[in-house]
Specification:
- There is one protein chain.
- The chain is an alpha/beta fold and 147 residues long.
- The chain has a single domain, classed as HUPs (Rossmann fold, 3-Layer(aba) Sandwich).
- Helix content is 44%, strand content 20%.
- It contains five helices and five strands, in the order E-H-E-H-H-E-H-E-H-E.
- Strands 3-2-1-4-5 form a five-stranded parallel sheet, with helices on both faces.
- Helix 4 (95-106) packs parallel to helix 5 (128-136).
- The protein is globular, with a radius of gyration of 16 Å.
- It starts with a strand and ends with a strand.
- The model is unreliable at 117-126 (pLDDT under 50).
Length: 147
């Protein structure tokens, strides 16, 4: 049925609910979970300031996508706890485009997103990410009601 399930996450509570349900589905059908999160690069000046203020042994960890890496790792931990195979994809740019690109590249069978995106300004109705994904997906889409 489903061998590859792409899930978008931004680390919000609603996205985490969608990830949890995706983990349950993936475990039930024996699918691999492909976690996707988008990021905007951190300005170089902010990176310099953060590195300067950080202890020397931690400066290596300060990079343009450190926040998204932590988001993906937290979501991947949920999958690993359930013994679900998982891979992570950090993509620069628009979250919906990141999800769609990964789904297309992997020839995914299913995309799962929450019904509300909480990144940036709160959206009304369906939310911009699930709306765009549902209209442009190369495969089936499951929108998890998280609110």
């Amino acid at each position: 049925m489903f061998k590859s399930i792409v899930v978008g996450t931004d680390g919000s509570d609603t996205a985490t609910q969608a990830v949890r349900q995706a983990v349950d589905l993936a475990r039930g059908v024996g699918a691999k979970l492909e976690l996707v999160s988008a990021y905007e690069p951190v300005p170089k000046q902010r990176l310099s300031e953060e590195r300067r203020d950080a202890p020397e042994d931690l400066q290596w960890a300060i990079n343009p996508r450190e926040d998204v890496d932590m988001t993906l790792e937290a979501a991947a931990a949920l999958a690993r706890e359930a013994d679900v195979p998982v891979a992570t994809y950090a993509r620069q740019g628009d979250p919906a485009d990141a999800i769609l690109d990964v789904a297309e590249e992997l020839e995914a069978d299913l995309i799962i997103v929450g019904n509300k995106g909480m990144t940036g300004a709160k959206r009304f109705l369906l939310g911009s990410v699930p709306n765009k994904v549902s209209h442009h997906a190369p495969c089936s889409v499951l929108i998890i009601r998280t609110t």
